Amino acid sequence: MEVHNQLGCGFIEKVYQDAFEIELQLRKIPYHREKHLSVFYKGQKIRHDYFADFICYDSIVIECKAVSEILDIHKAQTLNYMKINNIKLGIIINFSNQSLEYTRIVN
Fold first, then answer.
1. Which strands, in side-by-side order, build the sheet including 101-106?
2. Helix, strand, or coil here: 55?
3. Among 19, 59, 52, 50, which residue's Cα sits nearest to residue 33?
4. pTM value?
5. What are phi and psi of 85, to 5 degrees?
6. Which of 6, 12, 41, 50 is the most exposed place for a label (fewest CB within 10 A)?
7. Cα Dmax for the chain
8. Which pLDDT tens digit goes with each residue over 58-95?
């Protein structure tokens, strides 16, 4: 909420990610940014990887978006990050509207 209160809407996703990272640091919240996630198919590692925006406390996937609305594809992407890491909670934060929008996903 603080990031949205300070920056408002209208920036690209990377700006919000950078500001969110600063906020996590200020609040001393443990996190990994753009954590490398390997994907396997039938036991074989796929060449391309996923990168979750943030994983906080090693138990929450945070996806930052700057889109007109949170779509099912964003939810599916976050759910995949959660499955790969065996994480039960994900949050999509959309900074692109006048009011902060977020969706909580439980696996």
1. 31-37, 50-56, 60-65, 89-94, 101-106
2. strand
3. 52
4. 0.90
5. -95, 0
6. 41
7. 46
8. 999 999 999 999 999 999 999 999 998 899 999 999 99
Whether residue 50 contacts residue 37, with contact meaning beta carbons closer than 8 Å, is answered with yes
| 104 alpha carbon, distance to own chain's centre | 11
Could you say which DSSP state residue 21 is in? H
What's the rounded Cα separation, in Å, for the pair 29 and 40? 30
Between the alpha carbon of residue 39 and those of residues 46, 51, 56, 62, the distances in Å are 6, 11, 20, 19
Q: How many residues does the chain have?
A: 107
Domains of the chain in start order, with CATH, are 2-106 (3.90.320.10)
Report the half-sphere exposure of 76 (CA within 13 A, side-chain side). Answer: 3
- What tokens were used for 98? 């006048």
